[in-house]
């Protein structure tokens, strides 16, 4: 049984996203900006889950979810993102997820598709 979902008009969604992210009334920390972006991305794309895997160093990566500031930190092995490291463009995958580390897929609740957006920031990189 398929859900009755209307078609998404991506041009309107993109414009809405750009207008939300384009205003800055005062200085905000990078973590605040990326978390707001993840909230907007989840709303505009109808994604079930959106989070950032931030590479802390060569052996540590941290999962940052919208609203997780100050909460318990979740760390993972950054090796599960190695498949993405050579491409600086967004990548899209559909189930079955061939070539993707099962530990990465296990972070989600039975995903049907996956979009990976590289993030390059002064404090380090990662993936939304």
What does this structure look like?
A hairpin with a 5-residue loop joins strand 1 (52-55) and strand 2 (61-64). Helix 1 (10-21) runs antiparallel to helix 2 (30-45). The model has no long low-confidence stretch (mean pLDDT 79). The protein has 128 residues and is an alpha+beta fold. The strands form 2 sheets. The protein has a 5-stranded antiparallel β-sheet, covered by helices on one side. The chain has a two-stranded antiparallel ribbon with strand order 4-5. It has 3 helices and 7 strands; from the N terminus they run ααββββαβββ. Helices cover 25% and strands 21% of the residues.
Q: How do the helices and strands follow one another from N- to C-terminus?
A: HHEEEEHEEE
Determine the N-to-C terminus distance. Answer: 30 Å
Total DSSP helices: 3
Oligomer type: single chain
Q: In terms of per-residue confidence, which ranges show pLDDT below 50 for 5 or more consecutive residues?
A: none
Mean pLDDT: 79
Q: Strands across the major sheet, in which order?
A: 3-2-1-7-6
**Overall morphology:** globular
Question: How much β-strand is present in the residues?
Answer: 15-25%
